[in-house]
Each structure stands twice: as structure tokens, then as C-alpha cells.
Amino acid sequence: MLDTIPLGQPTVGDEELEAIREVFASGWLSGAGPTCQRFESRFAEVAGTAHALATSNCGSALHLGLQVLGAGPGDEVIVGDYTFPATGHSVMWTGATPVFADIRPDIWSADPAAVEAAITPRTVGILAVDVFGQPADYDELRQIADRHGLWLMEDAACSAGASYHGRPAGSLADVATFSFHGRKGITAGEGGALTTDDATLAEHARKLHTYGIAPAISREGSTDLPIPTFDEAGYNYRLSDLAAGVMLAQVDRLPTLLENRRRAARWYEERLAPLERVTAPVALDDREHPWQSYVVTLDPELDRGAIAGYLRQHGVQCNFGTYASHVQPVYGFEGELPISADLFGRHLAIPMHANLTEAQVDRVVETLAAAIAQPRG
Ligand SMILES: *Cc1c(COP(=O)(O)O)cnc(C)c1O
After folding, report:
1. Are residues 115 and 228 in the same domain?
2. Ligand 1: distance of its center to the CA of 58 in Å?
3. Which residues contact 161 (CB under 8 A, 6 or more apart)?
4. Residue 376: band (very low, low, confident or very high) from pLDDT cuts 50, 70, 90
5. Which residues are 298's β-sheet partners?
6. What is the reported pTM?
């Protein structure tokens, strides 16, 4: 029996354990402490922004970002349709309505023309998604936002280390949000971050992430007794300092992790090229893809369920791509987004992580080829 090749795999080890030991020794384990501060400085460098705020996950960062940008009841926010539904949910949490825009057929992020067509007098902003980490079309989206007086947000959940026209993911919109969930390129199990160049937005998000007051560390070492006042019902959206320690080690690893994923993507591209009825993902020349996932498109006549079953039986983990948001009943969205709906039914994610070997890539592609050659039944 062959070993199973996992779909994804975190890369963690002695460096992360050592980082946790240091946080234990510091005595400050809860969130928004000294280790979070160090991580936030490091991560702002990665994102190329003036400010970074560590959060409990990407969903909380999305919620904070939308709130500080002012989304609320009666507003519409245009959202790239093809994404994990945290994106659409976070708009709902503010009381605003997500209006989904269809996607580019090649890189699956919001089609700028579809975004512009979805604008109404109630639209307040655009929430673009970097699908599987590859940045969306920020030059075009920025022009549309400026033309219509809208703000622009980047769901960069999968994008740590990606770039667009030489600018890092995280710096491509007014506010960006990242995930450090176990399935993302860098991880502390759970976690997230919000990045922005705007000091006022950053400050407001920081206040909301600690129940509506400045985090306790701001009162450390006071010689008097400062007593905060609550004037907004914020949340506990903090990342713990333990997780921030792990994230510091992960940021150190990021260049190597990205290089390994790019190498795996090159192996895949070569080996998939001769295969019929399967299309490899597109990575555009003007942006760096961080390969959070590797997702192939199956021709319409293929039976994805049967292919996935075959792969799993033969020790190759796989999954669908991500979700078409507009068909999820929670949103009550009326309208058809044919490109997103079609790809939701034809995408297949195959193993991608930083520890993938060339032999494993060979086995994945050979198994996929055999699965496709199976008679239908
Ligand atoms: C993973 C993901 C999220 C959610 O991240 P959490 O950290 O689990 O909240 C949001 N958006 C996209 C595009 C994602 O891939």
C-alpha cells in the first residue's frame, strides 16, 4: 500500500517550538503583547505596508476591515464570487449586502468589467479576492474604485509572499486581510492579519480587536492608573502571543516555502502539459503566484466525482477548488454568474505544499492520468 500524499501540509518544526519556548519564558501569552508587536512589524515588511494588525483569523480581519471602512446596513459591497465564503459572510456581519461579481476564466479573481457592471447607487466598496493567492487586477480595480468613489479591499487570505506589478500582496488595496490557517502558505494553526498604509484605519481596527479599547500593553509601565472608557462594542479578535511566536518563525521560512511551492508548480506544469482533458492553472507574468493550492480544470465531459474517488482510493488526496459564493443559500443572491458556477463544478485541487517531492508529483500526475482513462460507470 502506497503512502497517502496529502493535499496540503504545514511546515513546522524546531524553530517554531523554540519560538513557543521563548513566549513561555516571556510570561506574556495572551494576545496583542510584545511578541505580537514584533510579529506585526515583521509582517508589515512582508506586506509592504506601514501597519499590520495580528488577528485571530482572516474572517475577523475581514470584519474589522469592512467596519473601519464604514460598511453597514443598506450598503452594498461587490465581492469576487469564487472564494471561501468567509469573504461574503464578513460583509453580512456588518449588515451590508454582498453583491457577487463573476470572475476571470483564467485566474478566477473578479473580472473588473463584471465589478463595474455591478455598481449601484448603494455600492460603497469592492472586496477583491486573490484566488489561491494569485493577486487580482488591482490597477483596473483601483481605477474603477476611484471613478466611482469606492474603497477597495484585498482578501489576501492565501497571498503571503505574492506580488503584483512588483508590489507585495497586502499593499494592493486600502486594506488587506491574511489567513494563517493550517491550509495556508504560512500558519500558526489559526491566525490572521490586517494590513494597511492608513494610520487612522489601523488604529481603529486595533481598538475594535480589543473590545473597543486600546490593548493592555499600551498601559504597561504606566506610573498612574489609566482607566479606559468603552465607546464602541468591539470584539476579542486578537492573535495570542504564542501564535505570534510561531508566525515569526514562519515568516523566516517564507522565502524557502515559496521557492518549494514554485518548484512543485513547475514540475506539475511540465507533467500536465501532455495530458488531455485537464488544464493546468494559469500564473500570469505580471504577478507572483504563491501557490497556496494547485487547482486543475477538468473538461466538462469528465466525471469529477469518479476521478476524485479514484485518486483517493490510490492514496492521492484531492478536493474541489473553492466555492461559487452566489449559489450559497445564505446570501439569497439572485443572478447568474456562469463562469464561477461552471468552474465550481470542474475544478480539482491536487496536492500542493512545500514538502512535495518530484517523485510525489510524478505519482499524482500518473494517478490522475489513470483516473481520467477509467471507463465511466
Ligand atoms: C481561508 C480563507 C479565508 C478564511 O480564513 P480564516 O483564517 O479561516 O478565517 C478567507 N478568504 C479566503 C479567500 C480564504 O482562502
Report:
1. yes
2. 5
3. 46, 168, 169, 185, 186, 254, 255, 257, 258, 288, 290
4. low
5. 278
6. 0.98
pLDDT tens-place string over residues 176-214: 999 999 999 999 999 999 999 999 999 999 999 999 999
* Ligand 1 close to Cβ of residue 192 (< 6 A): yes
What's the angle, vertex CA 298, arms to CA 293 and CA 299, rounded to 5? Answer: 155
CATH number, position 279: 3.90.1150.10
Q: Residues near 200 by Cβ (< 8 Å), separated by ≥ 6?
A: none
Find out whether 289 and 158 touch, Cβ atoms under 8 Å.
Answer: no
Residue-range definition of the domain harbouring residue 265: 254-373
Number of domains in the chain: 2
Atom of ligand 1 nearest to the CA of 190: 7
**Is residue 334 classed as helix, strand or coil in its secondary structure?**
coil
Q: pLDDT tens digits, residue range 28-49?
A: 999 999 999 999 999 999 999 9
Q: Which of 115, 47, 121, 131 shows the shortest CA–CA distance to 82?
A: 131
